[in-house]
Specification:
The complex is a heterodimer of chains A (115) and B (115). Chain A is 0% helix and 48% strand. By secondary structure, chain A is an all-beta fold. In chain A, strand 4 and strand 5 form a beta hairpin. With 115 residues, chain B is mainly beta. Classes of the chains: A mainly beta (115), B mainly beta (115). Chains A and B meet through strand 5 and strand 10 of A and strand 4, strand 5 and strand 10 of B.
Chain lengths: 115, 115
C-alpha cells in the first residue's frame, strides 16, 4: 500500500526556473493538499482540492499553481522559483478534511532549495 | 486570531521515562484536535484525533487528553523508546462556513530520547 507518494525527494533550482512537484495517492481520497514546512513555523497550506477539477487557495498560494485532473494526482507547479520558496513541501490527502475520523495522510516530502 | 501553541519547544529524556507534551489553542469554532508524530525526514503521521466530547484517547503508549473548557491538550508518552525521538505536532480543526474546515498547526515539540 503506497499511500501518498511524492517526487522528487530533493531538488535544487536556480532563481527564475520553473518545476513541478509530483504527488500521487492510491487511497481514493477526495481531498488533497500541499503544505510547506519552514524552520520554526507550523505547516502552512498552499493549495488544496476537494475533487477532480476543483482547487482552491490556502494560506500562502502566491508563486504556486495546482491542477487536479484525476482523483489520484495533484501536482504543484512553481512558476518562477525564488529563494523564499526554499522549503520542505508536503502533499497530504484524506477522505474529507472535516471528517472526524479522517486524518491527513502525508507524503515524505520534497526538499527544495532555490539558489 | 486562531492559534495553536505547543510547549516545550524541545525536550530530552532518558529511555524508559515518561513525558508529557502540552498544546494550548485559541481556535473557534472548534471541531477536533489531532496529534501527529513526525520523524526526521518524513511526513507527519496521525496518532490521535479527539472531538469536543472526548477527554482521553490512547494509541499504544501514547495517551492524549483534551480539556475543551480550558482549550488545552496534552500528549503523554509512557515508557519512552528511542524510536519515540521525533517532532510531535498538535493540530486543531476549526469549523468554518461551508463544507470544509480549516487546520491550524502548532510548531511542534522536538523530543529526543537518549539511551
Amino acid at each position: 500500500n503506497a499511500g501518498v507518494t511524492q517526487t522528487p525527494k530533493f531538488q535544487v533550482l536556480k532563481t527564475g526556473q520553473s518545476m513541478t512537484l509530483q504527488c500521487a495517492q492510491d487511497m481514493n481520497h477526495e481531498y488533497m493538499s500541499w503544505y510547506r514546512q519552514d524552520p520554526g513555523m507550523g505547516l502552512r497550506l498552499i493549495h488544496y482540492s476537494v475533487g477532480a477539477g476543483i482547487t482552491d487557495q490556502g494560506e500562502v498560494p502566491n508563486g504556486y499553481n495546482v491542477s487536479r485532473s484525476t482523483t489520484e494526482d495533484f501536482p504543484l507547479r512553481l512558476l518562477s522559483a525564488a529563494p523564499s520558496q526554499t522549503s520542505v513541501y508536503f502533499c497530504a490527502s484524506s477522505y474529507l478534511q472535516g471528517a472526524l475520523d479522517s486524518p491527513l495522510h502525508f507524503g515524505n516530502g520534497t526538499r527544495l532549495t532555490v539558489t | 486570531k486562531n492559534q495553536v501553541e505547543q510547549s516545550p519547544q524541545s525536550l530530552i529524556i532518558l529511555e524508559g521515562k515518561n513525558c508529557t507534551l502540552q498544546c494550548n489553542y485559541t481556535v473557534s469554532p472548534f471541531s477536533n484536535l489531532r496529534w501527529y508524530k513526525q520523524d526526521t525526514g518524513r511526513g507527519p503521521v496521525s496518532l490521535t484525533i479527539m472531538t469536543f466530547s472526548e477527554n482521553t484517547k490512547s494509541n499504544g503508549r501514547y495517551t492524549a487528553t483534551l480539556d475543551a473548557d480550558t482549550k488545552q491538550s496534552s500528549l503523554h508518552i509512557t515508557a519512552s523508546q528511542l524510536s519515540d525521538s521525533a517532532s510531535y505536532i498538535c493540530v486543531v480543526s476549526a469549523i468554518y462556513g461551508g463544507s470544509q474546515g480549516n487546520l491550524i498547526f502548532g510548531k511542534g515539540t522536538k523530543l529526543s530520547v537518549k539511551p
